[in-house]
Amino acid sequence: xxxxxxxxxxxxxAGAVALGMAFSASAAVAQTKVAGIFTLPVDQQWISRxxxxxxxxxxxxxxxxxxxxxxxxxxxERVMREYAEQGVDLIVGEVFGLERAARKVALDYxxxxxxxxxxxxPQEPNFSVFDNFIHEPSYLSGMAAxxxxxxxxxxxxxxxxxxxxxxxxxxxxxxxxxxxxxxxFLVTFIDSWYDPPKAKESAFAMIDAGADVLYAERFGVSDxxxxxxxxxxxxxxxxxxxxxxxxxxxxxWHMEPTIDKAIEAVKSGTYTADDYGQYSFMxxxxxxxxxxxxxxxxxxxxxxxxKEEAIRNGSFTVNINDEAPVSDK
Length: 329
Fold this sequence. Notes:
Elements: H1 4-30, E1 32-37, H2 45-59, E2 63-68, H3 73-85, E3 90-94, H4 99-108, E4 113-117, E5 127-130, H5 135-148, E6 153-158, H6 163-179, E7 184-189, H7 196-208, E8 213-216, H8 221-228, E9 231-236, E10 247-253, H9 256-268, E11 287-291, H10 298-313
Parallel strand pairs: 1-2, 1-3, 3-4, 4-5, 6-7, 6-8, 8-9, 9-10
Antiparallel strand pairs: 10-11
């Protein structure tokens, strides 16, 4: 017969292992499942910010994350339903152009949380919206552009004239006018989210018309700036490493505050239809500006930083203008 001491120790160890396995099983069951559905590749500038934030949450162990990219508008509803049927807790994506279908899916799956980029309002009980409200850093990047323009002509190439784009471009224009009241703007929309050759050709036309600074809302614009030796301002992501000596400043979007807030609500069982757009504001860490101080004069950098602090402390508010910007006559 084995000693009681040995049996007791063995029992304790076995009990601890069993308890650990129980905790592990419980954690696995409780793991929040999140799916991303994107109409473009995850390395596209706008989509990348959402994907990076979700990957960060996955790497922390907060969620299980799967995603589908390059999903066409005609397939989007089907993919939403497939993820909902699989028991995904939170579905994240963008529904510009297919609002009605996406909202119908949400109504059919009231126990699934949906967080979608949208121009419209939330829908009870489970369809929340977000947007890239980085108008504040866009204003700041505009200040750098206005000060840099010697011809007093800035070219702006956008994707589509929708509120999400319009508000950034209008804020950029306001910022440029602060540092250069004489500046004029050339504005073009290429009616595509990803067509670098078309964006590049539009930028060339603006340079030929006198623009010496370009607002690169789309890929392709900065390539034109490099080839013609003019400056550019970036949007959503920092591309200065790809275009050294060209990018004056960039307005950056950080999706982490939005994603983390939604995950927290799902985990706590408090998720409801809400507008998450505010979490892209600078005060929440949803936006920032990066400046190449080797290209922007010290006094302009100081003015930008002072305005940035004013935005953060609430003493200055950047206007939100969703109307389509137009070229100056």
